[in-house]
Design a protein that fits this description.
The structure is a homodimer of 208-residue chains.
Chain A lengths: L8 H5 L5 H16 L6 H7 L4 H7 L3 H26 L3 H18 L1 H9 L1 H6 L3 H23 L9 H13 L1 H4 L8 H14 L8
Helix pairs in contact in A: 2-3, 2-7, 3-4, 5-6, 5-7, 5-9, 6-7, 6-9, 6-12, 9-10
């Protein structure tokens, strides 16, 4: 067995359609549509034109595929928040960029995120402590972003940091379920619209 | 076999801890924690102190339990939106009541909603057309509520109705994952805070 399950996020992002990514993406598409448990390793092998021994040469078992899918999802989000910090300086730009890029990343890696979130019960029942630590670090990073925007006087002090993080997390994360590439708007446009609504309010100012 | 799977929403709501509801709730708690497929009917039977034949006397199979859980979840949401219309007249009160009661209902029936949303892949692969029709009707009802609030001049005309529905749906629905009864705030308080943020915006007016 080669060390496919050790694939780094950079290797994954740089290898669409080839190498370990080809198998991970095929597995994620199958798991997303039918659920993790009902899909067999033979079906994953067939989806990428490998024999069953050929697939097992790369992957020890189906759980290793699930674990990599969940790890890459977590790393994608942490990378996203690092990029937002690196590419934007002021709190206003950062908040908008966070919402836009979260929509983009969930939409572009919809199979990975759907599997990760859909299979939470399985992932938490196994020994996946690393994953929940990544998720908690991500939520902490978002709270930090919000707090910095409050300190800069951009976000209202009376908006609860934790609840605002949960609101943003949910309105954007739920896209794993409803986003369709065939829709009218690109993910960054949806993210922009979401941020505009939450930033400035949807109620007519006169009535607010 | 008795007709437990035909249980109505009113019977369900009026029978905590007894009758068909006792079995449905025990099954939902198990499915939520460990996923639908890994849980056996024997485990469901044990959770309510029945023998396996005793359980099968009430339920033909495990899929019937899942179908009832998903149907009740859908009916709870349609009932919720009916109640909002019945109990509140003006668009402002209705929007706030919708967000508050959605948080309440997801929190109070967290096992049912978690199972329904977690097992979407299984539910959609089987012949559950009724469920997706209920979900679409719910989304249509929310869009209707938003449109009425726009026509009344309460919600800004430039807020996209469909995207606002998705934003509300996601920020409140995601609570199935993070809500904990041990938290500081009650569900209606969280719903209130969410609506206040989205209604009036989280950005300082001077900067908006």
């Amino acid at each position: 067995m080669t060390e496919s399950h050790l694939i780094t996020l950079d290797d994954y992002l740089g290898s669409a359609g080839v190498g370990p990514r080809r198998i991970i993406d095929a597995a994620a598409a199958l798991f997303r549509r039918r659920g993790f448990i009902p899909v067999s390793m033979i079906e994953v092998a067939q989806a990428v034109g490998l024999s069953k021994p050929g697939l097992y040469h790369h992957w020890p078992n189906k759980e290793a595929l699930l674990q990599v899918i969940a790890r890459l999802s977590g790393e994608l989000l942490l990378r996203q928040i690092d990029d937002v910090r690196k590419n934007f300086d002021d709190p206003e730009q950062r908040m908008r960029a966070y919402v836009r890029t979260r929509l983009e990343i969930v939409a572009h890696h919809q199979d990975l995120f759907t599997v990760t979130w859909q299979e939470r019960a399985l992932l938490s029942s196994a020994s996946f402590g690393e994953l929940s630590r990544m998720a908690e670090r991500y939520r902490q990073e978002i709270r930090q972003l919000i707090d910095e925007a409050k300190q800069a006087g951009f976000i209202r002090k009376d908006a609860d940091t934790h609840l605002l993080m949960l609101a943003l997390d949910g309105m954007t994360g739920w896209a794993y379920f409803w986003y369709r590439e065939s829709g009218d708007l690109a993910p960054d446009q949806i993210g922009d619209a979401f941020w505009n609504m939450l930033a400035h309010g949807v109620v007519q100012p006169a009535k607010a």
